[in-house]
Each structure stands twice: as C-alpha cells, then as structure tokens.
Automatic annotation (TrEMBL), chain A:
It comes from the Bacteria. It comes from Planomonospora parontospora. Residues 217-269 form the HAMP domain. This is Signal transduction histidine-protein kinase/phosphatase MprB. Its cofactor is Mn(2+); Mg(2+).
Automatic annotation (TrEMBL), chain B:
This is DNA-binding response regulator. Signal peptide: none annotated. Keywords: DNA-binding, Phosphoprotein, Transcription, Transcription regulation, Two-component regulatory system. GO terms for cellular component: cytosol; protein-DNA complex. It comes from Planomonospora parontospora. PANTHER family: DNA-BINDING DUAL MASTER TRANSCRIPTIONAL REGULATOR RPAA (PTHR48111:SF21), REGULATOR OF RPOS (PTHR48111).
C-alpha cells in the first residue's frame, strides 16, 4: 500500500512543498546570517585592536620597566574611553579594578558613573579575563576573546607591551594591557539581522504554502474531475467525457479517458444493437411462423379426428402431426409473448378482483380443483390483470402437478401493501444448482431432459408477468422438501380500473 | 340468425393456406362457409349471401379489416369475429372500436373459433315479459327491440345481449369477468377490453351523452351497472 495510507494527495503535496521551503529558507537565511555575523564581529574586532594599538603607541617610551600601581593605572587610563574598559598588569600588580559594573554599557557610552574613578578610566572586573587568555598574552601574543559579562557581550583584547632595544630587537616589558569593549551595538544589529532572516523565512514559507495549495488544487482539480467522470462511467453514463486543458500529463490522462469512454460507448452501443437485432429477429420469425401455423392449426383438428379412421401408420402420423402442431403453436405463442415483454409493448389491464375467486377460476378452468389444496382467505381484493395472473398460476400449478409430488397447494396471504400466493408441492424439490436458473429462458434442468412439456419459456413469461404488475416471482425449497414458488403482487391502487373510463 | 344449427359463415382471409384450413375446419363443424380473399369481395358477398356471421382477418390487402368491419357494421347487425395475426393490443382495441363483437388470435384452434361463433350466434331467449321502460328507453324482451324515445335503436347481437343482461337486474353491479362469462361465454379470463369496447358502442347508441351515461354506468374498479334510472 501507499507509504502514507491516511494522507491524501493534497496533504502530501502541500507538506512536501512546505518542507522544501523551510529547508531552503533555513539554509539560505542561516548561511547569510552566519556570514554577516562573522563579518561584523571581525570588523569590530579588527577596529578595536587597531584602536588599542594606536593608543598604546602613545605610551612609548615607557617610563619605567617596572611600573607601580599608579603607573599601571595611567596606562590603563590611556587606552580607556567611554566604550572601552582597560586594565594593565605587571607581574602581580595591576591597575585599579572596580567591582564589575551592574549593567556595563547599558547606557552605551559608558558604565554608570559610580564605577568610574574620579578623573580616571573606567575599570574592568578582573574576573572576565580568563586565565587562558592571560597565558596567551603572557606568552607575548596579542589575543582576544568574546565573553559574556553581566549578560552583555564583550570583546576582551589582551596585548603585552613590548620594548624595542637599540639593536631593534624587542622584548617583553612584562606589562599586559587588557581592554574590554562592549559588543552590544553589534549584538543588536546581528539580532536585527536574525529577526529579518526569520521574517523573510516566515513570509517565504507562507508564500510557499499558498503556492503549494494553488499548485495542488491545479493538479487535483483534473484528478477529481477524472474520478467523478470515472464514477459516472461506472454508473452507466457512457457519454461522460472530460474537458481536456493544456498538454501536460493530466491532459494526456484525460484524453486517454475520453478515448476509452468513447470506445466503451461504441462497444456497448454495438452490443445493444446486436441484442435488439437478435430480439427483433426472434419477434419477426415468430410472426412469420404464425401464418403457416394458422393454416396447420386449422387442419390439425381435422387430422386428429380422422386419425382413428386412417390405416396405420398414417393414423399415428396424423396424430403426431396434430400433437406437434399444438406444441409448435404454444411455442410460437410464447415466443411472441416474450418478445412483447422485451420490446416493452406488454400492457396491463388491471381490474379490482377477488384473488380467491381468481385462483378458483384458474383451477376450475383446467380441471385442477380436485387435485390442488387451497388456503384462500376470502375477501382479499387486488388490482390485477386476471389474464396475466392466470398465466402465472397455470404455469406454477401445472409444473407442480407434473414435476412435483402431491399434495400441491396454493396458499394466499396478504398485508395492506401486497398479496403473496405460494404454490408448493411435496416432491424432492429443485436441485440447488438449478434454483438460480429456473426462470431462465429455455433452461433445461438436465441435459437428459431434451424436451419437456411446454415451451421452456413458461416460467420466464410467468416472472415477466409478475414484474409487469410491479411484483416478483421467486422460488425456494421448503424445509420439509418440495419446491415453493412465491408470487408477490402489490395492492397499491395506482389505477384501480384498467378500463378505458 | 338462422335456425336449424347450420349457419352461414363468411370468411374473409387473404392467406390461401389459412383460408383453406379454416374453411375445411368450419365446414367440418357443420357451417356453410363462403371464403373470400379480400375485403371488397367480402362486402359484395355480405349483400348477396346474407351470412349469419363474418370471420374477418384484420390484415388484408386493399381495404383493411378495420374498414371492412366499419362497413359491415354500417350495413347491418351481422356479428363479426376478428382474426388478428399479430395479437397486438392496438389491433384488438381498434377492431373492437370498429364494431367487432369478438376476436381470436392466430394461430387459432378451430374449436376455439367454433366456440366463439356459437357464442355470438346463440339465440337470445325471448321472454314473455311486459315491455320494460327505463326512462326514455323501452326494451321489448319478447320482440328483441330496443327503442329510445320511441325510435328503434339498431343494436348488434352482442350489444343487445349486454343490454339485456345488465337491464335484467337494474342497479346490480356486474363485474367484467361475469359479463365475459354470461355475454361472450369466454370464462373468467376473457379479455375485459371486449366488455369495455362493447359498452362504449352501446352507450353511443342509447345514451344522450356518452360521457355522462344514464343507463350503462361504470362502477370504478368493479364493473358496470344498469341505472338506476
């Protein structure tokens, strides 16, 4: 299955788009941020070192190689200004250092006045100078370090003071000067940069999401349309087509769909045409057979009645011809009847009739009254076409009497909406494999029964008659054996009178 | 109507085989059959032979069966039995409206046709009853004469039998099935359109307004009733 079975195409496309956008934005904005930050810090650092060096130049020549605390204070004062705190070391001695300012640089020009020695330089808390830095500086190198002092970023620069001898060699004077410069303005501009980067990234993300949803909609609309069209096609709406837009892959799919649908429509149309042709052919043949059969049927009786007086085998031949003429007549009549159902010209002539009376009339007309048990509550009336119901009943009861075992019974039950007539026998019932096919045309229960009585259309016609009423005809096997045919017909009074009134 | 059991049948059928077969069968049943192959000949024979019953194929070359039916009906009250080859409902209804008394569907068994012929020819029992009056309608059951406001009305035998059947029990509802059995001798499952078509023709002859019948009234869903006037 799909890796994300619960996510739709739209969600997947949108999230992929958003992810791509986030990654790109973070990479670009982050890269630029880091570079800009480094450049700013580098420049600040260089400028600070430069400024410090130029101030230190002014101290030369050093008055004494071993300055005392006051002199160190002077050195520190020389490199200090409003922004820069300084301290000078020589061996264990150092220039006066104040306690760390409460909020150094909060007012950017300098630390609060109380930390400023009167007439002197701002002082630096010694604790911010890491031993590591001191070691490096003591080794004779200029070094710097960024530290956070009292929640504010500072750049600490340390340098040893060198003494140049007359032979132009230099040696360490043992004096180390450290200055601390607030990085707060730089921090602010870097923060501003970060905020702008985030804002730009966010805007790009929002834009990307909008773009993604537009794109997915653009992709998904044709997909949805395709789905709807396919569903319609499946429901039998074979004229369904899709409007083809553009020339992308989706348009290709739409074109393929249209071609397929057109082919399908053509084939179905062809099949329908063939079926209609076949049915019309059957109808035409049946009608054509009628005229010669009419002549045959007219003389069959004559032949039958004369058969007894004819010498054998002419007598038997005459009886055979007469009998088969009757069978053929029944077959052709059934074919014509079923082709009328097929072509939709079969019409109902409804009459409000007493159902029990109708059943009795059917049985009486065929001499079956004695052979069939009836359970027919009186007073049940329904709008029926008596002739058609007679056809159904005659078929069902006739089959039961011929193929089933006695007793054959007809039972009527009714509710306000429908009546049900059950025709059952007590024979072995129908084979389970036969049950679904008993209403098929010309269905033969076994290959051995090459030709049975009747046309093979009787049950098919019976069911068509039931359906014409808006009812149905079904068959099951009873629990205690025997086939049970159930005819259900509606009692609704659509038009209680079939007459032309 | 002819007494003595032998009746004259005029058979109008264009197909030679069917014509010959039916002629053979009907002759065997004791009828005197005159078989012709077109409506024109049939109408000629109607005038010269004065048949008791006409058996008429609807599908005829020249003037068709419906037209022949109308002309026979216009000329007199000879009973007509239609032979319909197609069994199409339209044909049956049109034929009944054209005035046919009954119909059989081809291929027909001769004994069925024979039963139909006997039914339409069955002598209507003459009562000794008084002249019946129902509003403006007088029915003479002895003379088999029906008159509307004193003017005799020409009724085909089936129409007359239907009127006598209904008016025999004024106010009682007769179902179509009952009428098919008593008037057409068809049994329970006859075609109820026979009754409906005959009622239409009867109304056209005896009612002042066929759309608002006084004598032959419809009881929707059940059948027909005579009066009460």
């Amino acid at each position: 299955m799909a890796p994300w079975p619960s996510l739709g195409l739209r969600a997947r496309l949108s999230s992929a788009f958003a992810l791509l956008c986030v990654v790109t934005t973070v990479a670009v904005a982050g890269g630029i941020y880091v570079q800009a930050r480094n450049a700013i810090l580098q420049r600040t650092q260089d400028a600070a070192v430069q400024a410090m060096m130029s101030r230190l130049q002014a101290l030369y020549p050093l008055r004494s190689p071993a300055p005392d605390r006051a002199e160190l204070g002077g050195i520190a004062g020389a490199v200090s200004d409003g922004n820069v705190f300084a301290v000078a070391f020589h061996r264990g001695e150092h220039s006066p250092a104040g306690p760390p300012p409460e909020r150094p640089g909060a007012p950017v020009p300098g630390p609060p006045p109380e930390h400023r020695r009167p007439g002197g330089a701002p002082v630096l808390d010694l604790g911010v100078i890491s031993p590591q830095l001191r070691r490096t500086v003591a080794g004779g190198d200029v070094a710097w370090q960024r530290v956070v002092w009292r929640d504010a970023p500072f750049l600490i620069i340390g340098t040893p003071l060198l003494i140049t001898e007359r032979d132009r060699t230099t040696r360490s004077s043992g004096i180390e000067v450290y200055v601390a410069r607030s990085l707060l303005p730089e921090q602010r501009s870097i923060d501003g940069l970060a905020v702008r980067a985030w804002l730009t990234g966010g805007a790009a993300l929002a834009f990307a999401v909008v773009l993604a949803s537009l794109a997915t909609r653009g992709v998904l609309r044709p997909v949805r349309e395709l789905g709807r069209a396919a569903r319609l096609l499946g429901e039998g709406e074979l004229r369904t087509r899709i409007a083809v837009r553009g020339s992308d892959e989706l348009a290709d799919v739409a074109r393929t769909f249209n071609t397929t649908a057109a082919e399908l429509e053509r084939h179905v149309e062809q099949l329908r045409q063939m079926e209609a042709d076949a049915r019309r052919f059957v109808a035409d043949v049946s009608h054509e057979l009628r005229t010669p059969l009419a002549a045959l049927a007219a003389v069959a009786d004559v032949l039958d009645e004369e058969a007894a007086r004819l010498p054998e085998p002419a007598g038997r031949a005459a009886r055979l011809v007469s009998q088969e003429t009757l069978n053929l007549t029944a077959l052709v009549n059934d074919l014509i009847e079923i082709s009328r159902f097929d072509s939709g010209v079969a019409a109902l002539a409804l009459n409000e009739v007493d159902v029990a009376e109708l059943v009795h009339a059917t049985l009486r007309a065929r001499g079956w009254s004695e052979a069939v048990r009836t359970e027919l509550p009186p007073g049940v009336a329904a709008p029926l076409d008596p002739r058609r119901v007679d056809v159904i009943l005659a078929n069902l009861v006739g089959n039961a009497l011929r193929h089933g075992e006695p007793p054959v019974s007809v039972r009527l039950s009714a509710d306000p909406h429908r009546i049900a007539l059950e025709v059952s026998d007590h024979g072995p019932g129908l084979d389970e494999t036969v049950l679904p096919h008993v209403f098929d045309r010309f269905y033969k229960a076994g290959a051995a029964r090459a030709r049975s009585e009747g046309s093979g259309l009787g049950l098919a016609i019976a069911r068509e008659n039931a359906r014409l009423h808006g009812g149905d005809l079904t068959v099951t096997n009873a629990v205690d054996g025997g086939a049970v045919f159930t005819l259900r017909l509606p009692r609704r009074a659509h038009d209680p009178d079939g007459g032309p009134e | 109507m002819k007494s003595g059991g032998v009746s004259r049948v005029l058979l109008i059928e264009d197909d030679p085989a069917v014509r010959e077969g039916l002629e053979l069968a009907l002759t065997r049943h004791g009828h005197r059959v005159r078989a012709v192959d077109s409506g024109e000949q049939g109408l000629d024979r109607l005038r010269t032979d004065l048949p008791d019953v006409v058996v008429l194929d609807l599908m005829l070359p020249g003037i068709d069966g419906f037209e022949v039916c109308r002309r026979i009906r216009a000329a007199g009250e000879t009973p007509i039995i239609m032979l319909t080859a197609r069994g199409d409902d339209i044909d049956v209804v049109a034929g009944l409206e054209a005035g046919a008394d009954d119909y059989v569907v081809k291929p027909v068994q001769p004994r069925v046709l024979e039963a139909r012929i006997r039914a339409v020819l069955r002598r209507i029992g003459r009562d000794q009853a008084e002249l019946e009056r129902h509003g403006d309608l007088t029915i003479d059951r002895a003379g088999l004469v029906v008159a509307n406001r004193g003017v005799p009305v020409g009724l085909a035998p089936t129409e007359l039998r239907l009127l006598l059947e209904l008016s025999g029990t004024p106010g009682r509802v007769h179902s179509r099935q009952q009428l098919l059995e008593s008037v057409w001798e068809h049994g329970y499952f006859g075609d109820s359109r026979l009754v409906d078509a005959c009622v239409q023709r009867l109304r056209a002859k005896i009612e002042d307004d066929s759309a608002a019948p006084v004598y032959v009234q419809t009881v929707r869903g059940f059948g027909y009733r005579f009066g009460p006037v």
